Amino acid sequence: MKCRHCDSELSLQLMDLGTSPPSNAYLRVSQLTAPEKWYPLRILTCTNCWLIQTDDYAHYAELFSSDYAYFSSYSTSWLAHSQRYVGDMVKRFALSSASRVVEIAANDGYLLQYVKEAGIPCLGVEPTASTARAARAKGLEIVEKFFGVALAKELVAEGWAADLTVANNVLAHVPDVNDFVAGFAKLLKPQGVATFEFPHLMQLIAECQFDTIYHEHFSYLSLATVRRLFEANGLGIFDVAQLGTHGGSLRIYAQRLDTGDRPKQESVERLLRIEAEAGVETPAYYADFQARADDIRDGLMVFLVEARRAGKRVGAYGAAAKGNTLLNYAGVRTGLLPWVVDRNPSKQGLYLPGSRVPIVDEERLKREKPDYVLILPWNLKAEVMSQLSYVRDWGGQFVCAVPEIQVS
Ligand SMILES: [Zn+2]
């Protein structure tokens, strides 16, 4: 396979996760009697531009089917984060009713609802029908297409040249990264600002967050690689912030290389230095990742088997993509984990791909009073533990498997 950014041949493997179904291919009960498609899941490192990327066996269109069920608005902490972001951007970049804000991967309108509330004209781009529908129900204007240079030109022609573009947790999910990034350079007004949030590669490696690897997640990004990718496609990074979201993310601020004249903040060079000192562009940095991930897998299996032998009951919380990677890599089935609770009603009644663990509502948890609640989206651990604090009333405990098995 060739690198998605620089076209070099990829030879360095970061991790081989065997095979698994697409992590958002939730099953209906009628599909349980049919086979599932399992694709190889392997992560490769480009030793030329250091873009870490998924080997692309899975067909792109199959990964984002119209019933793709991730709705951002089901996380209250993510909503609060988005509301704060909008307030900060309006202030920092003096946005007004004369401005234009465009969000790529607007999902269910979790963020644009606050832009609209502030009286700033905004537009969402969201190719997934079910989430686009939810966004429209909030009164938002949504273009149901994939973003790239072609769509950017259309939007500019329709009067949507942007003062601010927002792209949260989408950069890593795009197969053609060059066309995607070049689209922002086209869409921005001469002094426009583009912000992007994405999980930071250094957190993935440091915390061994291997469960954030799945087919729909094409790239794993350092600031150094993103800067290279952006500069090759007409964008310059002028600021970066480190965030606690999604297990450790970056928010980068970019402008057009040809017209943007915001001064570059010291934060950019500082983080580039930290990355260089850690060795993110050396093979040694990645050498023990697979072995550490295998230890996490073993830790989860030992915990589940021991719990079962001791007659303890375990349920899971959060039918998230990362949970599917973990459960399928470990080979967990319903014998060890009989159900998973999710707050999203559109997921309830479905089954996790691969493991086929049924997704149930919170009533099941309250009724069955399990000894352990395994939190699959560990990035929301604090939020989930506080939401489900009543589990303590019957002596229940919370468990996270990444970066190591922890019972609390
Ligand atoms: Zn490359």
Structure at a glance:
This protein has 408 residues and is an alpha/beta fold. It has 13 helices and 17 strands.
Descriptive overview:
The protein has helices spanning 60-63, 76-92, 112-117, 129-136, 149-157, 177-187, 201-206, 223-231, 266-278, 289-309, 321-330, 362-368, 381-387; strands at residues 12-20, 39-45, 52-54, 101-104, 122-125, 142-143, 162-168, 188-199, 219-220, 235-243, 249-256, 314-317, 340-341, 359-360, 372-375, 397-400, 406-407. With 408 residues, the chain is an alpha/beta fold. It folds into two domains: 72-286, 3-Layer(aba) Sandwich (Rossmann fold); 289-407, Rossmann fold (3-Layer(aba) Sandwich), CATH 3.40.50. The protein has a seven-stranded mixed beta sheet. Strands 14-13-12-15-16-17 form a six-stranded mixed beta sheet. Strands 1-2-3-9 form a four-stranded antiparallel beta sheet. α11 links the parallel β12 and β13. The protein is globular. The relative contact order is 0.12. The mean pLDDT is 94. Residues 3, 5-6, 8, 46, 48-49, 51 line the site of zinc ion.
How does the overall form come out from the CA principal axes? Answer: globular
Distance linking N and C termini: 43 Å
Give the biggest beta sheet: 7 strands, mixed
Reading side by side through the largest sheet, how are the strands ordered? 6-5-4-7-8-11-10
List unreliable stretches of 5+ residues.
Answer: none
Small-molecule binders: zinc ion
CATH H-level superfamily title of the largest domain: Vaccinia Virus protein VP39
Number of domains: 2
Number of helices: 13
Strand count: 17
Helical content, roughly?
A: 25-40%
Rg result:
21 Å
Please write the CATH class name of the largest domain: Alpha Beta
